[in-house]
């Protein structure tokens, strides 16, 4: 009861410094939370990237695989779905056909002209194609290419080189049809999966999952291997969990430094704020409240300011996600990292304000007060 009464009275008598202190906490925690959120944002980006979230699936050349069953299974085992599934078949020594199930080709290479497959073209199985830039002369005039028994109208081109796919291919894979030996001379022709499965069997598959951790990929690989024994499934060489740990270490250090720098201003405000309690503490002390309890009362108010300011900062961060997404900051930090940094900052603020606090609570003796 005394706690709330003193707090209310103090705020009404010192609105400016109370408001500045709360604002300082909000700004400081907001910046720290964004900094820590960048690590999580980069991790989330890695868990749906082609290099950290793709499984390499080698197909037994003798028996092949039921593509409809495999495609349906790939889309069912992940709750968050797939980004793209790529089916590779070598047509000639320097030509590779890719059956593409998905619409996000820019995850793998830059699109230099035209457009990539859209959802309608994938569902309808339209005879359209997307080619590498080095096929520009080959399709000049006709604007199309032949694959199997069909002709495909080219709707776009991209800077596609062997490394575009080899970067995601597991080094443990026993099949290499991506054309690294041919370098930039290798030509790539991409067609919708629905058209591809009519005539072709894949030799190798790259399955890019959506928001899949390394642990998730391990489970998926085991399930695919058990369901389709004619395949060999390999995990990516890059581990998304390593991205998270590296990011956490890096941004926790930066957040700690930011905490120290930004905290200086907040602590200076806090020191001035503490001195405004002189009158309230004098009255409470004369009424019999011990000095330690007086000190705990002030720090209790500071804890309340700190908690409310932190909550406001987190809400503000959520509201600014649309802007933060451009720097991959539209993610909340790991809870343990945020609590650790905030606890350090709170403890640091207490240590740095013990001197002004001692001046407030070290009062005259009662006999000296007239």
UniProtKB/TrEMBL annotation:
It is found in: Cell membrane. It is a multi-pass membrane protein. Pfam families: FtsX (PF02687). The keyword Cell membrane applies. Keywords: Cell membrane, Membrane, Transmembrane, Transmembrane helix. Residues 253-353 form the ABC3 transporter permease C-terminal domain. One of its GO terms (cellular component) is plasma membrane. Its main location: membrane. InterPro entries: ABC3_permease_C. The chain crosses the membrane at residues 20-40, 253-275, 296-318, 338-357. This is ABC3 transporter permease C-terminal domain-containing protein. It comes from Coprococcus hominis.
């Amino acid at each position: 009861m005394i706690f709330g009464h003193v707090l209310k009275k103090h705020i009404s008598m010192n609105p400016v410094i109370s408001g500045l202190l709360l604002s300082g906490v909000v700004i400081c925690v907001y910046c720290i939370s964004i900094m820590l959120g960048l690590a999580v944002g980069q991790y989330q980006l890695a868990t749906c990237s082609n290099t950290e979230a793709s499984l390499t699936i080698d197909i037994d050349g003798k028996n092949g695989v039921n593509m409809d069953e495999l495609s349906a299974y790939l889309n069912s085992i992940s709750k968050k779905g797939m980004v793209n599934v790529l089916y590779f078949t070598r047509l000639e020594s320097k030509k590779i056909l890719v059956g593409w199930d998905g619409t996000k080709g820019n995850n793998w290479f830059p699109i230099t002209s035209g457009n990539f497959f859209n959802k309608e073209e994938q569902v309808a199985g339209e005879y359209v194609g997307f080619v590498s830039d080095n096929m520009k002369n080959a399709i000049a005039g006709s604007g199309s290419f032949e694959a199997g028994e069909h002709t495909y109208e080219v709707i776009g081109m991209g800077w596609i080189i062997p490394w575009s796919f080899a970067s995601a291919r597991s080094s443990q894979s026993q099949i290499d049809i991506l054309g690294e030996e041919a370098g930039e001379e290798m030509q790539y022709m991409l067609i919708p999966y629905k058209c591809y499965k009519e005539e072709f069997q894949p030799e190798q598959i790259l399955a890019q999952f959506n928001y899949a951790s390394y642990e998730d990929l391990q489970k998926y690989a085991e399930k695919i291997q058990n369901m389709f024994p004619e395949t060999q499934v390999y995990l990516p060489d890059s581990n998304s969990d390593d991205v998270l740990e590296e990011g956490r270490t890096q941004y926790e250090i930066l957040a700690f430094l930011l905490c120290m720098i930004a905290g200086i201003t907040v602590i200076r405000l806090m020191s001035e704020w503490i001195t405004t309690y002189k009158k309230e503490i004098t009255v409470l002390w004369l009424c019999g409240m011990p000095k330690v309890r007086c000190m705990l009362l002030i720090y209790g108010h500071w804890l309340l300011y700190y908690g409310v300011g932190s909550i406001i900062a987190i809400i503000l961060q959520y509201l600014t996600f649309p802007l933060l997404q451009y720097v991959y900051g539209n993610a909340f930090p790991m809870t343990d990292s945020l609590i650790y940094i905030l606890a350090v900052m709170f403890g640091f603020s207490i240590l740095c304000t013990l001197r002004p606090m001692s001046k407030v609570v070290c009062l005259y003796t009662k006999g000296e007060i007239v």
